[in-house]
Amino acid sequence: MTASEMASASSPAWTVEDTEAPSLYVLTGGQTKPTHDLQIETLLWAEGEPPAGQPPEVEQAMALCREQPLAVAEIGALIGLPFQITRILMSRLIDFGALNAMTATHSADLPDVALLKALRNGLLKL
After folding, report:
1. Which of 41, 43, 62, 75 is most deeply packed, by most CB within 10 A?
2. Average confidence (pLDDT) over 22-36
């Protein structure tokens, strides 16, 4: 479709519905990376209060985290934001001291099971 055909089309190029939701860019203030390494399973819980003037999504997340610790993925799903945007907003709340975070230990960080069994067997022989 050429530019003149588009200009003569009877429907608008965008609709009101397209402009009602705030841009994700606006929610993050243009920030594209979180300040903390929050994983999908990182648990967050409320410890303080965020600064005034936060978007409604932040208020919703804080309310959820006051009830019980929640994973970053759960928070994003419940407030309807993509994972990366949720990570950025939650990182900001950690920076403000409003949230605390705890990441589960990965199995690669745990000691080798075979080594622990060998150690136990050796101690039992003493």
Report:
1. 75
2. 85
Q: Position 74: which residue type?
A: E
SS3 62: helix
pLDDT confidence of 92, banded at 50, 70, 90?
Answer: very high
Contacts of 102 (CB under 8 A, 6+ apart): 42, 43, 69
Q: Comparing C-alpha atoms, which of 120, 49, 45, 98 is closest to residue 75?
A: 45
Amino acid at 120: R
Q: What is the pTM of this model?
A: 0.66
List the 70-71 sheet strands across, edge first: 70-71, 43-46, 99-102
Is residue 26 classed as helix, strand or coil in its secondary structure? Answer: helix
